[in-house]
């Protein structure tokens, strides 16, 4: 928790500095709006894994920043396509600036984030481009995918931007031999995150109003989503812990990394004000 | 002209094959719609410059395909933001498939094109990411830029996707020592293309209805756009010819490369049915 508060503050500073240095005045104001007030969970993963593998904190900065840029851009686009008028407690960017501007600013922010990532080398860039592509395929599967593909859909849609920081931490810490394991760890965390997010929707919303992967979860389990979520949560959490044991994690990071699944799940359930029946 | 007909047919085949091989059924139908019936000018540049520098035709395939994917995605997004209902003689993609789908399919197509480009190596990928970013900045400057920045705006907005294929041809032909010259040549051609496109708008449209760079051109020249366009056209064409002389162009390609500025300009003016007063 404390680690998160601190990394969130650092990320907020990085974002502010990045935006203030922007030479393109046309993009700055709106980029600021799009990037305001995030929870910075994904960026925090970059700090945690980078530190756990022995990287210096400053080596995590570009990765955390780029991750949050991509995440914010994807939210801004999601809001357009969902016609959601509220984001992070304020009007959605499109409702303030129009679709037009949001689309172009996103088209500016996305390659800008990729350029920042290219500082970690060409392999990091290449994988990041593929992960970004995966988020788009996931967004489509979220709408049109089959219920049976639920887990694959949330992996593509959500876990891609969790894989991104854990993957980048292998480069930032100079431990690229753990690339695959780190990608897997990010995948587990992202699936857990979306699983609980959909669980919250299934619990709190009228079942006729469920959309996307939450609707798929409800329909796949014929409404008996709780036991399914509990089972999958355990399965991915155990897998994640197995991965952690195979990584040379520095001692003072281990507890925090182990606690991540519960931290993410607890955060989502707490936000929605529902009781934990999962873990 | 004949070269263009042939390369257009080859590109149409490449596009069809690419789409039929798509594993993501959610994207295929709409991607087909977005990519239908292009003039394939930009992809043709890839064939021309690759061939002129001694590359094999097949080495140009990925670059031509990726260029046309990016171009089509950018048009589909432009139509959303402009609320244009007609594109290439049919309903615009958003009017058929909704904004939602077009945004996500574009977010899928763009990194897919970048992945294809990465086959030319990491430097090619890195430059392509930057060029894509430039198109987004250009789109914003098209709306909010100053009239005095007109040439810079059209360079960013339009010439970026002309630079892309000429730049890639340096990698496809194995002549990366000419990278900078080829980028410059693409820039000249792209500026010429947009200059004439805006000229056509200024000639054919009511001046109150001009938007974007065409409006900037009109306003910058206080309505005396013709002499300005003629001057700039000559300037960029001469610069382009100077660049061509510094490249080791194969003899049988020289005439076609030299003719490109007039070919592009003539094509645009012919399409609009206006008389040539420029060259």
TrEMBL record, chains A, B:
The Swiss-Prot or TrEMBL record describes its family as follows: Belongs to the FPP/GGPP synthase family.
Per its UniProt record, the required cofactor names are:
Mg(2+)
Which Pfam families does this chain map to? Answer: polyprenyl_synt
NCBIfam families xref list: hexpp_archaea (NF040936)
- Per UniProt, which keywords does this protein have? Magnesium, Metal-binding, Transferase
Q: What is this protein called?
A: Polyprenyl synthetase
Database matches in InterPro entries: HexPP_synthase (IPR053655), Isoprenoid_synthase_dom_sf (IPR008949), Polyprenyl_synt (IPR000092), Polyprenyl_synt_CS (IPR033749)
**Which GO molecular-function terms appear in the entry?**
metal ion binding; prenyltransferase activity
Organism encoding this protein? Metallosphaera sedula (strain ATCC 51363 / DSM 5348 / JCM 9185 / NBRC 15509 / TH2)
This protein's superkingdom?
Archaea
A Gene Ontology biological process term: isoprenoid biosynthetic process
């Amino acid at each position: 928790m404390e680690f998160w508060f601190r990394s969130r503050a650092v990320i907020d500073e990085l974002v502010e500095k990045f935006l203030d240095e922007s030479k393109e005045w046309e993009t700055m104001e709106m980029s600021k709006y799009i990037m305001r007030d995030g929870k910075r969970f994904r960026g925090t993963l970059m700090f945690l894994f980078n530190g756990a593998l022995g990287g210096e904190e400053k080596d995590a900065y570009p990765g955390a920043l780029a991750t949050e840029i991509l995440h914010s851009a994807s939210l801004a686009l999601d809001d357009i396509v969902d016609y959601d008028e509220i984001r992070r407690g304020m009007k959605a960017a499109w409702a303030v600036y129009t679709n037009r501007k949001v689309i172009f600013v996103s088209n500016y922010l996305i390659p800008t984030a990729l350029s920042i990532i290219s500082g970690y080398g060409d392999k990091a860039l290449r994988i990041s481009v593929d992960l970004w592509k995966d988020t788009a395929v996931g967004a489509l599967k979220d709408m049109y995918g089959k219920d049976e593909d639920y887990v694959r859909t949330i992996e593509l849609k959500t876990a891609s931007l969790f894989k991104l920081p854990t993957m980048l931490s292998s480069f930032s810490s100079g431990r690229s031999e753990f690339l695959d394991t780190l990608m897997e760890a990010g995948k587990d965390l992202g699936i857990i995150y979306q699983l609980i997010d959909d669980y919250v929707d299934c619990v709190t919303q009228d079942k006729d109003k469920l959309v996307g992967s939450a609707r798929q979860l409800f329909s796949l389990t014929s409404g008996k989503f709780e036991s399914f979520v509990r089972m999958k949560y355990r399965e991915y959490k155990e897998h994640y812990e197995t991965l952690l044991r195979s990584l040379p994690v520095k001692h003072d990071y281990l507890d925090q990394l182990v606690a991540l699944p519960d931290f993410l799940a607890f955060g989502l359930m707490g936000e929605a004000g529902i009781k934990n029946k999962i873990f």
